[in-house]
Amino acid sequence: MVTQVTSFSRNGLSDFIVQRVTAYVLALYTVVVLGFILTAGGMTYEIWQGFFNQTWMQVFTLLALLSTCAHAWVGMWTIGTDYIREHYFGENANAIRLVYQVGCVLALACYIIWGVQILWGS
Amino acid sequence: MKNDHRPINVNPSDLFAFAWPISALASITHRIAGVVLFIGIAFGLYALDMSLGSAQGFDTLHSMMKSPIGMFVTWGLLSALAYHFVAGLKHLFLDLEYGDTLEGSKFAARTTLLVSAILIVLAGLWVIQG
Predict the structure, then answer these.
(1) What global pTM score does this model have?
(2) Strand, coil or helix: what is B90?
(3) What are phi and psi of A98, to 5 degrees?
(4) Measured between beta carbons, which residues in chain B are less than 8 angstroms from residue A75?
(5) Residue A2: partners with Cβ closer than 8 Å, 6 or more residues away
(6) Cβ neighbours of residue B21 under 8 Å, at least 6 residues apart?
(7) In tens digits, what is the pLDDT along chain A, a chain of 122 residues?
(8) Does B89 contact A27 at a Cβ distance shorter than 8 Å?
(9) Is B97 helix (H, G, I), strand (E, B) or coil?
(10) What is the dihedral of CA B116, B25, B110, B84, to 10 degrees?
């Protein structure tokens, strides 16, 4: 049995809501970006850069990146608690899962910092 | 009183001893696609960084995506995105209580696999052509 529970918000119901709200944001972002690429015809650097240089697109992209990370955290947390437990991993399961969860969080934090750097850096 | 209907642990070696309902297949694929996308974010950010940095970066990325490995990675990530997107929509429909019966879940799983298969083929054609 999993005794240590460190969900995204320490509350399953709000994790569920976070997963849904971020899913809607990401679905819309996917449709907008792929729709732009498919309707732009021959894509050039000027068209592409101009698209991402608009304030609304920068805000939307950062929102999508933050949504990705919250969404991925809930998903990766769920996978960790489903599979990394004592039945499969023995008595070190809690320690292994902690390392796994910290690894996920650090990767997602790097993604956010990298994304901010891409959107507003230099 | 002993309850014989408690859930049991399924070991990896047992996975193929069970008949997989199509909804289970659709579900585990959603999960695998999610993990692929978790790693894929790094590829996406790398591509965004390169394509927005300079015109040369944009052209370099374009030729990278035209190499066989680049085409495979692009198609693989687009496929994971397509599947996760469609299977995610299934969950959002479930929230609205569409497809929450046994028959409904079979139909939803079949539809998810069919629609995503079409999108994955289209993504492949787009990658080869572009």
Answers:
(1) 0.91
(2) helix
(3) -60, -45
(4) 31, 34, 38
(5) A81, A85
(6) B106, B109
(7) 444 455 666 677 888 899 999 999 999 999 999 999 999 888 999 999 999 999 999 999 999 999 999 999 999 999 999 999 998 899 999 999 999 999 999 999 999 999 999 998 85
(8) yes
(9) coil
(10) -30
